[in-house]
Amino acid sequence: MESIWAYPAGSGHTEGQDLTGCAVAAADGTIGHVDREAEHFGMRHLVVDTGVWVFGRSVLVPVGMVTGIDTGARSVTVACTRAEVKAAPRFRTDSETMDRDYLASVGDYYHRLPPRDTSAE
After folding, report:
1. Dihedral, CA atoms, 68, 17, 45, 43, nearest 10 degrees?
2. Which of the four, 49, 58, 87, 114, has the lowest number of CB atoms within 10 Å?
């Protein structure tokens, strides 16, 4: 499951890249924008502000879900649907980004999602 916490090869990620403010798109539409990137316990993830879509809350998305980064368009594409992001373990406070058990539950959730064919995107 460690791969869920690392950017996949071919995602377009380069070390030191700032994704803050980038739009985040799921397979079926926009989910929000990157508020920040964090890494604790080797568990690297994006905190995505969903705006009004999910009642003004944020969600955590492990960077292993990133399928593409377009720096020109300032966008990040993830390999899941809006419903799957909405159903992920709820993110309530920033302290959860430093809670190993919470991060493990998020990683486990995304790791268990069915694989997607992203070659057509």
Report:
1. 120
2. 114
pLDDT at 109: 96
Tell me what the pLDDT averaged over the chain comes to: 89
**CATH code linked to domain 2-11+19-111:** 3.90.50.10
Q: How far apart are CA 90 and CA 2, in angstroms?
A: 21
As a whole number of angstroms, the distance between CA 12 and CA 115 comes to 19
Mean pLDDT throughout 75-94? Answer: 92
- Residues facing residue 45 across a β-bridge: 38, 62
* pLDDT, position 93: 82
E-strand spans in the chain?
23-26, 29-40, 43-49, 58-62, 66-70, 75-78
Q: Which two tokens stand for residue 5?
A: 């916490």
How confident is the model over 17-32, as pLDDT tens digits?
Answer: 999 999 999 999 999 9
